[in-house]
Amino acid sequence: MGTKKSNHIATLAFSWLALVCLLLPTAVSAFQKSKSTVEVRIKPNTPGSRFGGKKAVVYQISVTNYLPTDQEGNLFYSIENLQGDEVLNGGLELRVNARKKLNSAFEIPLKDPGQYQLKIQVQLTNYQDYFNDKISYSGTPEKGRKPSGAVMGTALT
Description:
This protein has 1 helix and 8 strands; from the N terminus they run H-E-E-E-E-E-E-E-E. The protein is of the alpha+beta class. The longest helix is centred in the first third of the chain and has 30 residues, at about 1-30.
């Protein structure tokens, strides 16, 4: 009787292992980066999106174009207060050559301290997406703040 039970357990273990081996390549491929489209990443220049003092409201943008055609379009942003009222908007032009990557930064000229909702829309030739972030802004940058070097409402090339 003990032999039948251990054979049954071994069969179950082998079946489970075989199932995992069959499904693992499918699961791994679902998390791999697709190299047939455009990839856009946007992140704040400061941890937790907390700006002010010597920290201007600056976001990093990375656009990787895996396509054989150039991608042209715009990035539009809107800043809303906690009541949902738009207090600022702007945008910039984007251009990424075929099979190239663009890394840049853009500055959002907030003036009044407060908590805000940032809404970003990226529209390119073969790509469109939306990004949202919550911003905490403690006030106008100090006089001694160095320029961020970020683009302000102009073309990114």
